[in-house]
Amino acid sequence: MKEFKDNFDKLTRTHRPHTVFTDFCEATAIALSNVTHMTQSEEWKKREERYLAIAKKYGKDMNILSDMFALLTKQFDEDFKNGEIQDRLGILYSELGLTNDRNGQVFTPTHVCELMAELSFDKETVDNAIKTKGFTEVYEPCCGGGALVLGYVKTMLKKGYNPQNQLLIRAGDIDLNSVYMCYIQLSLLGIPAVISHRDEILVQEYSTWYTVGYYLNKFGGVL
Q1: Which of 1, 44, 168, 185 has a 20 to 30 A CA-CA distance from 212?
Q2: d(CA 171, CA 193)
Q3: Mean of the pLDDT values across residues 23-43?
C-alpha cells in the first residue's frame, strides 16, 4: 500500500493527517452507499451533500482521494482472489500513526482475529444454517474497523465456503469512522452486510449502511 501512503502524504501538506483519513473514509463510504440506492431518498440526499462538502474542501485534490479509493479497491480484489483477507484500513490507520492509545483505541492484529475466527467457527452450525436458509450469520456489536469479521470471512474462504453469498454480517460501533472503515472493507470484498452507527448501551441507532453485496444477494427481506 505504498502508493496509497504516498497519496495520503500529499494531502497532509495542506490538511491534518487525521482529517484526511476520516474524510477519505466518509467520502468512500458515501460513494459506495449512494450507488446502491435506486431512489434518491432524504438519507441519500443528506449523504450526497456531505460528499459534495468534502469534495469542495479538497478542490482538485479530490482526485487524489479518488486515486486512493482505486488503489484500495485493487488491493481488496487481489486479497480476495488470494484468500489473504486483512484489515487493510486498520493496518494503514496504525502505520500512519493515527491511533489514539490514550483513549484505548487499538486495532486487533490480523493473526489474533484469524485465531478467534477459527476458534468460534462451528462447521455443523454453519452447514445447518446454510441448508436451512441459504446462509449463516455473524453479529459483531463492537466491530471497530472490521478486523474480527474480516477474520471470519477469511476462515470461511479457507474452509471452502463462499462468504459472498453464504454469509450475512450484522455489525455496529459507536465510533462513526470505524463504521465507515468496516463498511468500506466489507463492501469491497462483496460481502453482504449491514453496518450500524449505534450505541449498544443506550440502544440508540444513528445511521445504517448496507453493502452492495447485501442488495445483490437479495437480503432486503431478511432484516
Answers
A1: 1
A2: 8
A3: 88
What letters, b where the CB count within 10 A reaches 16 and e where it falls short, cover 148-187? bbbbbbbbbbeeebebbbbbbbbbbbbeebbbbbbbbbbb
Other Cβ atoms within 10 Å of 205 Cβ, number: 12
The chain-wide mean pLDDT, for the chain, equals: 91
What is the greatest pairwise CA distance in the chain?
A: 54
The three three-digit cell numbers of residue 211, written as one number: 453493502
The 8 Å CB, 24+ separation contacts for 117-126 are 117/148, 117/151, 117/152, 117/154, 117/155, 118/155, 120/152, 121/152, 121/155, 121/156, 121/159, 123/159, 126/156, 126/161
Give the C-alpha separation, 1 to 147, whole Å.
17
- 173 beta partners: 197
Residue 95 CA to residue 97 CA, distance in Å, equals 5
Q: Which of 43, 47, 22 is nearest to 176 (CA)?
A: 22
At residue 122, the 3 state secondary structure works out as coil
- Helix, coil or strand: residue 75: helix
